[in-house]
Every structure is written in C-alpha cells, then in structure tokens.
Amino acid sequence: MSDGGGFTSMAGAKAEGQAPEIGIGILGYAFMGKAHSNAFKKIPYMMYPPAAIPRLVGIAGRNADSVNEAARRYGYERAYTDWREMVDNPDVQVFDNGGPNDAHAEPCIVAAQAGKHVFCEKPLARTAEEAKTMLDAVEKAGVKHMVAYNYRFVPAIAQARQLIQSGALGRIFHFRGVYLQEWIIDPNFPKIWRLDKAQAGSGALGDLGSHVIDLARFLIGEPKKVMGMTQTFVKQRPLGDGSGATGTVDVDDAFVSLLEFENGALGTIEASRFCQGRKNHQIIEINGEKGSIKFNLERMNELEVFWADDKPETTQGFRNVLVSEPYHPYWSNWWPQGHMIGWEHTFVHEFDHFFRAIVGNTAVDPIGATFVDGYRNAVICDAIVESAQGGRMVDIRYDA
Ligand code: SOE
Questions:
Q1: Nearest alpha carbon, ligand 1 atom 11
Q2: Which of 68, 46, 69, 44 is nearest to 54 (CA)?
Q3: Based on the domain organization, do 176 and 262 belong to the same domain?
Q4: Sheet strands (E) in 207-253
Q5: Which atom of ligand 1 is nearest to the CA of 211?
Q6: Structural domain harbouring 119
Q7: Is 219 helix (H, G, I), strand (E, B) or coil?
Q8: Residue 321 belongs to a domain with what CATH number?
Q9: Which pLDDT belongs to residue 17?
C-alpha cells in the first residue's frame, strides 16, 4: 500500500481477521453523529487491512426517541440518554464527542479521567481557557487525543503539505483562506445553538474560520500576530420555539482577519455565513518564491498549481491537477485514478489515523490535530475577537 508520504502507512495494520476491536462511544447523533458513524462502518473494508475494527458500543444524546432511532440506524449496541453511563461502560475505549460546543469540555474531561482515548469535534472549546482545561485533562490522563479538523485529510490538502514541506514552493510569502456559506442569510432563520455565544462560543469564526486557521498552521506554521474585524448582520432572530419571541444573536455572522506568521509570511483569513451562492466554499491559496497552489473544497479532488520554472513560451500558467493517483495521499485505499472521493471520506481517513495511533501507539500529530492544536486554534480565535473589540493588532501567545 502506498504510504502517500506517511499518510496511510501500515503502522498498526493487521492482516485480515487479526485486527483488534476498538470500542466506540459517541455523544451526538445529528450531522456529526452521521458523518462519524459512516466513517466507523467504512474503515474495516476500505482502510484495508484495518488497524482496528470499530465496535459501535454506544451512542448518547438527550432525546430518547432520537438516540434510540440513531442506534438502530447506525447499528450501535446501546443507546444512552446519559453520556456518563456510556463513558462508564468498560467496552468503550474511545469517547467520540460529536456534540455541540458547550457539550465538549465536561464529557471529554470525564472520559479522559476514565482512561478513554478522546476524539472531539471542532472547535475544541468555546474559549482558549476552556480548551486548556481539556488539554490538561487528556495530557494528565495519558490518553490519545484528536480534534476533528477533517480537511487535513483531504488528499489534495495532504498533497499540498507534501509540496510545501519538500521545498517545492520555496519561501512562503502568503496564505489566503476563505470559508463561505449562505445558510443563515434569511433573518427568519431561528437562533439555533450555533448563533448563541453561551452554547457556541463564536459564530462563523469558530465554526468555519477555525478550519482555515487550522489549515494555515498545518500548511505553513504558526501565526505570531493577528488583526480582526467581526460583524453580526442580523442581530435579532426568532427563537424557533413557536413562542413568536426573538433572541439576540451574540456571535459573529462573519469575520475578516490579517495575520503575520512566524516565518514572515502574511495571511488573510475570513469566513461568513452570508455569502449567497456559496454552499461550502473553502478556498486556500499559498504563494511562494517558486510557485503557488490553490485548493477549492467544492472541487476537492483538484489542486491548482503554478510553477515559476515552467517555460513561459510553453506551459507557464496555473494548471489544474487531479489529485487521484495511487501515489497521492490516501488514494490507494479507494479507486483507480479519476474516480472521485468526497467530503465523507475525510472522516474515514481521520478516524483511521486516530485508530492506528491508538493501536500502534504512534503520534497523532503532526498529521492529525491534537488537543494542543485545538487549544492553539482557540487562542488564535480569541485573539481575533480581542482585536475586533479593541481595534488593534494582538500578539499570539500560547501556554502549551
Ligand atoms: C457548518 O455548517 C459546518 O457544518 C461546519 O460545522 C463543519 O465543520 C464544516 O465542515 C461544514 O460546515
């Protein structure tokens, strides 16, 4: 199997029938519950031979009818309305937190204290302070930990990182990232948890911006200072509970930011949920001394590249590369070249990486995001909000 630059190495893999089971207990049965469960079921026969066979031990959620239906739908052995009871199940070796942001800290900390390996959806927490308590807990417990920055596991992104790490772009001058959606532009869209600071921590910043911030760190390194602006375009929304009452939106609908990186590169990162026509529009562009690369999530199997040493009279210009060859990251698990994979497969790669790290006792980072990455991401998000409120540049300082 091609190791794709260490992305699908055989570390921890077992011949068919020898792979150990790994018991999963997941909190949350909505969007991420579906994406994660789909990945657990695909791993044994697609990331083959698997390092571990996920055993769907339990799924937890507040609504009994919904969580029982999810257990039947995805094939979990038990449904729980109390996540603590699920964490206490000795058959649960991995606690997977797919819940809303205000349900990340306590369950992850309790699971780590119970000796479970912990996987948590992004953003890790609502603030850097809350993220640090989670990081301290998993490090003290000595368990493996990972944050679901799944776009690291897009083959084209992994390929971009290989190009940058190989020096093919040379010195990096710019990182430019946007993440644009449109789904709350209707002022009658209700004030759901993602629009409430107490539950979400932030709006487009933590939900979408944190993905781009993570890719900036993954691809070119640490930012050293940021300047940010935020805006809430619709400040009152119906609560959506039939009462006819409205609530104040206390998170950002959009943000823009300027960054200077430790390596001298300059960056811009923005995210918005008010961009009509943009469905899940994440663009990453990196400009270096030897060339440029551009990634578009809505065309996720492609990478646009420009090489300065191409002959001007022949091929110089941006080229569109189909990242689908057996030697490209992760592709040896899937299909012949040109047969596309999609958004869901990033979760298959992501969990396979986590399970291999657990079974083989190998490092989750730098390929996967750990709680250190989740904490540092939260520090950057907090700095962007601080800058927006204070109207000045803010230095990035980590405590881990
Ligand atoms: C927001 O709608 C969202 O679902 C994010 O929460 C995900 O992290 C992103 O991958 C897609 O958009």
A1: 280
A2: 44
A3: yes
A4: 223-231, 236-238, 246-248
A5: 8
A6: 10-150
A7: helix
A8: 3.30.360.10
A9: 63
Last residue of a domain, one of 118, 150, 182: 150
Q: Which amino acid is at 13?
A: A
What is the tens place of the pLDDT at every residue in 196-213?
999 999 999 999 999 999
CA of 281 to the centre of ligand 1 (A): 11
Indicate if 163 and 132 belong to the same structural domain.
no
Cα of 282 from ligand 1 centre, angstroms: 11
Give distance in angstroms: CA of 208 to centre of ligand 1.
Answer: 6
Instruction: Give the ligand 1 atom nearest the CA of 150.
Output: 10
149: closest CA among 184, 120, 176, 190? 120
**81 CB near ligand 1 (under 6 Å):** no
Q: Is residue 4 part of a domain?
A: no
pLDDT tens profile 378-399:
999 999 999 999 999 999 999 9
Beta-sheet strands, E only, within the chain: 21-27, 53-60, 78-80, 94-97, 117-120, 145-147, 172-180, 223-231, 236-238, 246-248, 254-261, 266-272, 281-288, 291-296, 302-307, 319-322, 394-395
Instruction: State the pTM of this model.
Output: 0.95
Same domain, 105 and 198: no
At residue 7, the pLDDT reads 44
Q: Please name the residue whose Cα sits nearest to atom 9 of ligand 1.
A: 208
Residue 71 belongs to a domain with what CATH number? 3.40.50.720
Answer whether 214 contacts ligand 1 (Cβ < 6 A): no
Query: For residue 211, how far is its CA from the centre of ligand 1 (angstroms)?
Result: 9
**Å from CA of 140 to ligand 1 middle:** 30
217 and 362, same domain (yes or no): yes
**pLDDT at 8 (0 to 100):** 43
Same domain membership, residue 231 and residue 129: no
Residues 109 and 160 grouped into a single domain: no
Looking at 99, 127, 150, which one is the last position of a domain? 150
Residues 142, 159, single domain; the answer is: no
Please give the order of strands across the beta sheet that includes 281-288. Answer: 319-322, 302-307, 291-296, 281-288, 172-180, 266-272, 254-261, 223-231, 394-395
| pLDDT in the model for residue 18 | 83
For residue 14, how far is its CA from the centre of ligand 1 (angstroms)?
33
Low-confidence ranges of the chain (pLDDT < 50): 1-11
